[in-house]
Amino acid sequence: MSATVAACQLALADLDVEANLAAVEARVRGLPEDVAVALFPEYALTGFVADGRAVDVALSRDGPELDRVARLARDSETALLVGFVERGDDGSGTDGTGLYNTTAYVSPDGTRTFYRKRHLWEGEREVLDAGSERTVVDTPVGETGILTCYDLNFVGESAAFTREGVDALFVVGAWPGAYSENWTLLLRARALDGVRWVVGAGRTGRRDVPDAESVAYAGRSLVARPDGGIHAALDRREDDLVAELSPETLDAQRDLVGIYDDESRTPSRPTDDE
């Protein structure tokens, strides 16, 4: 059965959790009723700056902000993928200890699954810790791996999810506009090399925060088909990319390529991890 997904392209308010939560709520309430999963950009709830201010907006995964997201998922009957700076239980949240770039998959039934970004980009390394585990979650699209922005560059991540036989990748990003073609290319490549759907939700607008680098973001949210083609895409405007993902399209491409064994859904030949 086909599933409808939405990549909700936002211009975030860095360091303003209440404004971002309100924006997420408004966008979800405006989606078509048949949307089963809505993805939001990297750091959708908190934004990010690479200094001590990240500590001030860091959220706990069981805090009131995520409770609010869970109520939104329940009331809208839509699974939500949202990112935030997480204050973990394993550190003080200072000097790069105990803070993570985390993405939560929140189901309408209240189930929460978390992914901590494994590959940190530039300033993130100064204030965040990297995650250590990959995450696969059961979604209306099928078994789905979660990636965050710079993770796309590492083909070992794609190979690992290929061995898992996932049906889709959900990617949240805050890609700089100067490199927007790379974002598009990598999303398509990750669809092609694992023969799966890829949905990328990108941040748009600018980051203009005092004493922080100003960045214009790419937007360019898209859905890539299992053959690497573009199924649907946005430019840089704030908008919702709504697309239907068909399992028949996935099955036909996998039959054509022959990458998976019919019964085991594992690769029919070894795949290197690095």
From TrEMBL:
First and last residue of the signal peptide: none
InterPro entries given in the database record: Aliph_Amidase/BUP, C-N_Hydrolase, C-N_Hydrolase_sf
Ranges where the CN hydrolase domain occurs: 3-247
GO MF assignments: hydrolase activity, acting on carbon-nitrogen (but not peptide) bonds, in linear amides
SUPFAM superfamilies, per database record: Carbon-nitrogen hydrolase
CDD domains: nitrilase
Protein name: (R)-amidase
Species of the source: Halobellus limi
Source organism phylogeny: Archaea, Methanobacteriati, Methanobacteriota, Stenosarchaea group, Halobacteria
